[in-house]
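REQUEST ID: PR-0412
SUBMITTED BY: lab tech R.K.
PRIORITY: routine
TASK: structure prediction, single protein chain
INPUT:
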Amino acid sequence: MSGVRYFILIIALLFSAPMARAAGLDRVLLLHSFGTDYSPWDETATSFRDELFKLSPGPIDLYEASIFTMRFEKPQEEGPLVEYLRALFSGHNLDLIVAMGGPAVSFAQRHRSSLFPNTPMLMTGVANQRVDKTAITANDTVVGLSLDLQEYIRNILRLRPETENIFVIIGNSQLEQYWLSDLRRGYQTFANRVNFSWSNNLPFADILKKAASLPPQSSIFYFLLTIDAGGIPHVQGQALAALREVANAPIFGFGDYEMGYGIVGGPLNPTDALGRRAAGVAVRILKGETPSDIKTPPMKFGAPIYDWRELKRWNISEAMLPTDSIIRFRQPTLWEQYSWQIGLVAGVLLAQTGLIVYGFIQNRRRRMAEESLAESEERVTFTAAAVNVGLWHYTRSTDQFWVTEHCRIIFKLGPGVPFSRDTLLRLVHPDEQKTVTAMLAEPSGGGPSVVREFRIVLPDGQIRWIRSRTHSSSEYKKVPDRVSGLFIDLTDQKAAENEAAIQRLELAHLMRVSVLGELSGAIAHELNQPLTAILSNAQAALQLLTSQTPDLEEIRDAVGDIVHEDNRAGEVIKRIHGFLKKGQSKTEAVDINDLTESTISLLHSELITRQINVDLNLTQGLPTVLGDPIQLQQVILNILMNAMDAMISTPSSRRRLAICTGLNRNGLVEVSIHDSGTGIKPADESRLFEPFYTTKDHGLGLGLALCSSIVEAHGGKVHLTNHIDGGAIAALSLPAERFRLAAE
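STATUS: complete
OUTPUT:
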């Protein structure tokens, strides 16, 4: 039957395969272990496939085949599959073979000489110890895993030190039999601490029964279940979900693809990241690199990942987790999600309760209800005053205000002065009259809160900032034209924001002075050249004038050179003066190409001194951006300086900066700077923009933090990532002027 099945597959695929290779088309064969739906390889294959199509500069013709024979017990059944692959690709050259998973790698290595003797091969989705090192050729490379099998058990004992029994879930295929011996041998270290039981000789129904009846102080380690002892194949997600339904002990898993299916978590096999890394290597091979020259270190566990729901289910404290842990699926409490809504509803309910009690209680208890309501109002008023908030209602039909005492304090109104619409408008700054009028004219009916800010001028001439939050509710049946809200005094906050802005400008100016201090030698050299030329031409002109018949044409050329070099020196001084300029931020239309070129000119001598080549690719016709040119130039200059510093240890022949401008896929104007330095270390990625965090020996840690705040104030973003070809790439993206004005 198997031979007939393979014959049918051969015929179907031969008719569906393209008969001739298109120009520039790369053919890739992806060999799956067991089948396309078996974990963990299907997750790795998915990320590999997506990343391959994204990174490849040209079209990819991707074929996929599965090593079904690894499900069978008789090795001679591989014959039809070998013949099928040989017949399928007879006369159709492949550019790359990708073996996904241990079974596929073993199959490819066994039959390489007869199937693909000269085709480059990439082996991935496999632990390095599963690869036959003696069979690796110059046309082979490995992007594998380094699995610390004992770390899985250490994680269980770290989170549940009371564990006495561990039930290891593992299947009975050839692959799982291989791992079973490794697990038994590696876990002898824990023999004196816990008892291990194994599922390799159990069908899945018996595995479920045992998981439901484990003794106290037990844990479950779900390693791999592709085929059980009954010969039944299993999809990992479905098997895990069924196991979670009946298990009486927490389940710990093998890979990150199992997150969300019932495992607690811990150090996990990085299947998705492995696929992306393998795709990067595949693209390098398709571009012509020799596979054996590509040395890729095996991937290790990343930061431990845990499922918040499983931690709560099994009462595992987060204090037991490693400090660098990542917690997923955390569910915010109702208070965290709806704190102000709950407070608002509670206030409304309290008021409604007071009204109901007031209307229906007996007359003899009316006085007590009124006193209770007054006491409740006093507490609300006191609470609002404690947080510097004044509450108010305004009824348009009667033109009457009800306000708490703190509202009067905010507006500095004496005891005898009524709080009315006219009183409020007299205090409001003339420029803000329309804002307050709109606030009091808020339409009736339910709707979101409206926040406005305005200035008031007190009788003593002092100007203060007030924020109002108004809400018109359709629930006020008896007073449908009532507007309710609160006033908050923002004067101190505005003063603090203004002080912070001034300090940020001062810091930016000091950083610019610091950068020019670092470039002082290069600037001196930049100025020395035109000054030397001016002196030489002046001396030459004087010499010519001493002649009895001076050559006026030569003198004119010398004077012209003096003028040219003087303008050149003046431009250098102008750029330095503009960069050092101190004062208030100004907003104008900025041509990002001109700004980039002027910044590079400022660094011209420094780039020569450091032996750095610059590839400049400026997209013409870019829209202008709206911002402060001095601040934006400071951002570009700081990023360029960082990129130059990153290439200190790079050989001078390879020091190169690739600087491009253009529009990104979001329609933002972007400047990207790619260096050939050492790249960003994983430990530094999440902290690069933290103030006072630096990777330099003599850095202050303020440059990138300041750059980020400047760009965000301009409505943009700064991104720093490692480039697949080495080095780091910094991308500065800003909204075009027309979109920024429309948003504002």
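NOTES: Confidence is low (pLDDT under 50) at residues 1-22.
REVIEWED BY: pending
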